Amino acid sequence: MPSSRPELKAPPEFFYNEEEARKYTTSSRIIEIQAKLTERALELLALPDDGIPRVLLDIGCGSGLSGETLSENGHHWIGLDISQSMLDVALEREVEGDLLLADMGQGLGLRPGVVDGAISISAVQWLCNADKASNEPRLRLKAFFGSLYRCLTRGARAVLQLYPENEAQLEMITTSAMRSGFAGGVVVDFPHSTRAKKYFLVLTCGPPSLSTALPKAKGEEGESCSDDDSSDEENHTVTISDRHRPRKKMKVNKKGKGREWVLKKKEQMRRKGHSLPPDTKYTARKRKSRF
């Protein structure tokens, strides 16, 4: 049975052709889902409730369905997508955001610190597909998260809703985000539901702090999941804020470099004609820390 996942059928710029873009945009089901996911992403973005419009980045904006929700909430937005057909439909619909034709796997190409937050609805998993000989998922993820980190203001959040194919793919995405400097983790809404389960990668631009604590996930009835409901087998919230880049292992000589080793080396150097200080009782003796 062929897979229903669109990212396994063709690269996004080819899959979302003119016919598919129009069909996507006119589907009442898709419109409803996009609106709900965008509202949830805005909630997780946790923008200050001060009435000031923010400049937000919509990654994989498509025909502007998610951007409409951003506009309805009073924010300015920049939409980025790889599909020319999707952006053409967005222009026909006269969406309020600025539109960019770009491949997020090549980097976002924005100036440092120009956006106050970023969202992405059902797009980031496309970076994990090696649908071309030149596409290496880890390099594309590195370029994406590195450029996303740079264009965000310090302390800003990015909320990326995605459909990971498996746990390994989700781990690859979160690890790439962590290595780019982000703090945060994965929030899983409706974790016990097969159809309603939704993954949100909630990232904060900057080092871990009290302000980077992850929000609660939604439960089966829409309420927040409490810590008491979580189990070791299935965590509702997976944090990576307390993880750090692995340091390179230092080469350690298990045998050590004691007196015998030093005397042997000095003798070898003398045979080669080098002039060395004479051996004494202090040779190879460890100095005190206050020497």
Summarize the structure.
The chain is built from eight helices and eight strands; from the N terminus they run αααβαβαββαβαβββα. By secondary structure, the protein is α/β, with parallel strands linked by helices. The protein has an eight-stranded mixed β-sheet, sandwiched between helices.
Q: Would you write up a description of this structure?
A:
By secondary structure, the protein is an alpha/beta fold. Helices cover 31% and strands 18% of the residues. The chain has 8 helices and 8 strands, in the order H-H-H-E-H-E-H-E-E-H-E-H-E-E-E-H. Strands 3-2-1-4-5-7-6-8 form an 8-stranded mixed β-sheet, with helices on both faces. Helix 6 links the parallel strand 4 and strand 5 (152-162). Helix 6 packs across helix 7 (167-179). The chain starts with 11 loop residues before the first helix and ends in a 20-residue tail after the last helix.
